[in-house]
Amino acid sequence: MDLRMVPAGFIRQYLHVETAYAYMPVVPANVKRASWADDLRRMFDYVLEEQPLSHGEYCDLTFVDFESDDELQAYLGTVYDYLFLDSGEVPVPPG
Fold first, then answer.
1. pLDDT on residue 2
2. Contact 28, 36 (CB under 8 A)
3. Do 48 and 76 contact (CB within 8 A), yes or no?
4. pLDDT bracket for residue 3 (50, 70, 90)
5. Helical (H) or strand (E) element with 42
6. Residue 54: count of CB within 10 angstroms of its CB
């Protein structure tokens, strides 16, 4: 997997506004049974560790607007916990 290609495509597909608000409750079930689950987790790890996008760039890709990079990172951390650590709490981006 080429991690240089991950952020934009990954974020558009898994964190777009429609997914964030409408489909997030069904994503964990799909992730758990998917053959690509390990790749998805590695992509998420990369995005959390490297923080390759600012909150403005993230908004351009997803149409979800955060006040700051810190707020974005906190949200992504809750999404990660929800998808991979079974936190049980559906993450809700700012409205």
1. 47
2. no
3. yes
4. very low
5. helix 37-50
6. 13
Tell me the helix, strand and coil percentages in the chain, rounded to 5: 70, 0, 30
What predicted TM-score, i.e. pTM, was given to this entire model? 0.82
Local structure of 35: helix, strand or coil: coil
26-82 pLDDT, tens per residue?
Answer: 777 777 777 778 888 888 898 899 888 889 988 988 899 999 999 999 999 999 999
Closest CA to 41 of 29, 50, 32, 54: 32
Tokens 């908004």 sit at which residue?
A: 59
Over 3-14, what HEC string results? HHHHHHHHHHHH
Residue with tokens 């974005």: 72
Take residue 46 and report the two structure tokens written for it.
């990369």
